[in-house]
Amino acid sequence: MIDFTEHDLDRFLAEDPGGPVVMLNLLRFRPNGGRERYAQYAANVVPIARALGVEPIYWGDGGRALVADDGQAWDAVILVRYPSRQAFADLVSDPAYRAGAYLRTEALEHAVLQPTTPAGA
């Protein structure tokens, strides 16, 4: 699965514990241009995200997993801090974001978007 549904987004918002959220992105790019397509997507989304107070914390290339089941190799790992879950919803519903979202879909073979909150929160 690459994209989330409206139902997924509704559940994400309903489970909101409040406060900021750091989204773990695990990405596996399509061969033959997926990484480049994702870079186009990122160039489009970063200005929109920054206007909402969203900040990328970390972007790194994946390597061979030390401990993982087969199929858990990822090409890239990205951590993005959102001021709230609502900020994520605002980003993905922004018309400028939606206009370029197809680039993400075209770039990825598999993805995980995992919301995280500070332990003990």
Which features would summarize this protein structure in a list?
121 residues; alpha+beta; 4 strands; Alpha-Beta Plaits; four-stranded antiparallel β-sheet
Can you characterise this structure?
- With 121 residues, this protein is an alpha+beta fold.
- It has a single domain (6-11, 20-64, 74-116), classed as Alpha-Beta Plaits (2-Layer Sandwich).
- The chain contains four helices and four strands.
- The chain has helices at residues 6-14, 34-51, 85-93, 95-107; strands at residues 21-29, 55-61, 76-82, 108-116.
- The chain has a four-stranded antiparallel sheet.
- Helix 2 (34-51) runs antiparallel to helix 4 (95-107).
- The longest helix is centred in the middle third of the chain and has 18 residues, at 34-51.
- 15% of the residues are buried.
